[in-house]
Amino acid sequence: MKLPVEVTIYEVGPRDGLQNEARQVPTADKIRFIDALVAAGIRDIEITSFVSPKWIPQLADAAEVARGVHRQAGVRMSALVPNRRGLETALASGMKEIAVFLSASETHNKKNVNKTIADTLLAFDDVIPHACKAGVNVRAYVSTVFGCPYEGDVDPEAALTLTRQLRDLGVYQISLGDTIGVANPQQVEDILGRVLATQPAKDIAVHFHDTQGTALANCLVALTMGITTIDAAAGGLGGCPYAPGAAGNLATEDIVAMLHGMGVKTGIDLDKLAEASRMAASFVGHELPSKYLKAHLGKQARARRRAEAGSP
Ligand code: HMG
Ligand code: MG
To answer: Near ion ligand 2, which residues have CB within 5 Å?
Structure first.
């Protein structure tokens, strides 16, 4: 199997994960979670969203999180930005990288940002050039590439058209989102095949939610096609509040364990990552879905019981 030597994990747990939680996680705990992820070797991390707090109350403390995180050389921290106001607050809070977002289907786009796709692209004109002028790198997400919670099937050409338009606007990378976790490996091969015919693989990332358990299989196809950036959320946190039925993101532990097992480097320490996820689970108040995490915590608990019983 032809696989990359090294893969960049783009961690979205503090943003995609926490935006979907019923419990409001205190700012200090969000910062501890981010610190723990960085300590585990994560080098690309989306820490929050500068969106309307009326739309995403869970991330209303974006400025405090951005000002409170402990920045380190070599660690790129990013945040979602929907409009000029979000950009201004992000810049004032010290952000050096942002991500804009839109959907491949009109209904999800309207429900998510209250605009048509065309108007969202127009609004980016008021964000991306100003961000670039301020020396800020801009990433972009295209959501609902593989299916829409409101419209069902999505035209596979939509990802290609939007990718071209976003590249023309000056974004450095485009992450193709399976917002509701309905993609299958054959569809990934089809859509990525179209996109990679016009874009270098390093400029494209994949963002799979894991509603039906297909995220790892989808990643494997993407990896064999040359993709080297994979979005994931610690523990499998995640979901879009404007995409009913969407489960968590691909769990960072699960993809990292699979990659390491195949000899692909990520620079991430799995034990420390599991520790960050364990911490996140305590903050959100429920178990997280990562398979690797469950196995790891089970192994730790068995070792503890053996030690308490005095057996080797
Ligand atoms: P709107 O209601 O059309 O806009 O929302 P508005 O301009 O009328 O603003 C409404 C209120 O929000 C106003 O407050 C604004 O000032 C305020 P009021 O005057 O009523 O008191 N406001 C802001 N406040 C702080 N920061 C801002 C900001 N902008 C406006 N930046 C808007 C339009 C785009 C703002 C709104 O729809 C929004 O914030 N949407 C965000 C939705 C969201 O974050 N969804 C989840 C992220 S996307 C995702 O998860 C998918 C992804 O993971 C990939 C995948 O899985 O596929 C990325
Ligand atoms: Mg997402």
So the answer is: 16
**Domain boundaries of the chain, sorted by first residue:** 8-310
Give the mutation target among 52, 98, 108 for probing the ligand 1 site: most ligand atoms within 8 A of CB.
Answer: 52
Query: pLDDT digits over 128-154, tens only?
Result: 999 999 999 999 999 999 999 999 999
pLDDT tens across 78-97, in order? 999 999 999 999 999 999 99
Pocket test for ligand 1, best of 45, 46, 51 (most atoms within 8 A of CB): 51
Print the SS3 string covering the chain. CCCCCECEEEECHHHHHHHHCCCCCCHHHHHHHHHHHHHCCCCEEEEEECCCCCCCHHHCCHHHHHHHCCCCCCCEEEEECCCHHHHHHHHHCCCCEEEEEEECCHHHHHHHHCCCHHHHHHHHCCCHHHHHHCCCEEEEEEECCCCECCCECCCCHHHHHHHHHHHHHCCCEEEEEECCCCCCHHHHHHHHHHHHCCCCHHHEEEEEECCCCCHHHHHHHHHHCCCCEEEEEHHHCCCCCCCCCCCCECEHHHHHHHHHHCCCECCCCHHHHHHHHHHHHHHHCCCCCCHHHHHHHHHHHHHHHHHHCCCC
**What is the set of active-site residues?**
240
For domain 8-310, the CATH superfamily is: Aldolase class I (3.20.20.70)
Query: How much is the pTM?
Result: 0.97
Q: Which atom of ligand 1 is nearest to the CA of 87?
A: 31
Q: Which atom of ligand 1 is nearest to the CA of 115?
A: 3
